[in-house]
Amino acid sequence: MPKEQDSHVDNSRRKILTAAAAVASQMVLPIFAGVDPKTASAATRTKMDIDRFVADCIEANTDNDSQAAVLEVLTRAVHTPNAVLAAVGEPSKAGITVLHRSKTLTIFSAVWTPQMNLMPHNHLMWANIGIYTGREDNLLWRKSPDNIEAYSAKALFESDAAALPVDAIHSVTNPLLRFTGGIHIYGGDFFDTTRTQWNAETLAEEPSDGAVIRNIFERENERMQQRNQS
Ligand SMILES: [Fe+2]
Question: Distance from the CA of 129 to the center of ligand 1, in angstroms?
Fold first, then answer.
């Protein structure tokens, strides 16, 4: 099928899915509102289907404007944040749960501990972020003659979704005293790409990749444990 025709079919399908999601959202009940059987069955019905979500993202990623198409899928998902939370689980520690990984697309759920910070870093691929619980404050940086400089900020609340371009540099803070959880989607293999991060205090450049990020999360959990014990 020609690409243009293919794209038309994709757009039509997304319109149908969006309409279905709008109808479904009219029926959504709070999933943690109580323990009566009616609410419990509503919780089951409103749990996000992770396999379907991933399949929709993979399909959207074939669109001519893949980032915008995937963002549409993500926006629709976090529109019912409790359904995402029910699917990925209540956060209890910092971590990354990979939902999909390929050369052209990485999807994971990331949890920030209370007041966790992540130093400035780039991705070298487009990124979409959707928040399903808590809040994520993004400080946006850009290259400067000397190094990098902060120039803008964006606070993402529950149900917000945002797109970062390929050349974005951002640092992230969870300003809350509770966990923040988000679905993060990247237009490439996030874990197999050597990127750059900038030391939070000196802004010295350091190499970063999936292993470095996982190590940051592990240290963050140790910090939280020590704080809870003190
Ligand atoms: Fe990031």
Answer: 9
CATH class of 3-229: mainly beta
Span from the CA of 165 to the centroid of ligand 1 (angstroms): 11
**38 vs 34: CA distance, rounded Å:** 9
What distances in angstroms separate CA 208 from CA 22, 123, 129, 141, one per listed residue?
A: 40, 9, 19, 17
pLDDT tens digits along 47-85: 999 999 999 999 999 999 999 999 999 999 999 999 999
* pLDDT over 60 (residue 12): no
- Three-state DSSP at 132 gives strand
Q: d(Cα 45, Cα 26) in Å, to the nearest integer?
A: 13
Query: Cα of 95 to ligand 1 centre, how many Å?
Result: 14
Cα of 226 to ligand 1 centre, how many Å? Answer: 26
Domain limits, the chain: 3-229
From residue 179, give the alpha-carbon distance in Å to each of 44, 134, 174. 23, 6, 8
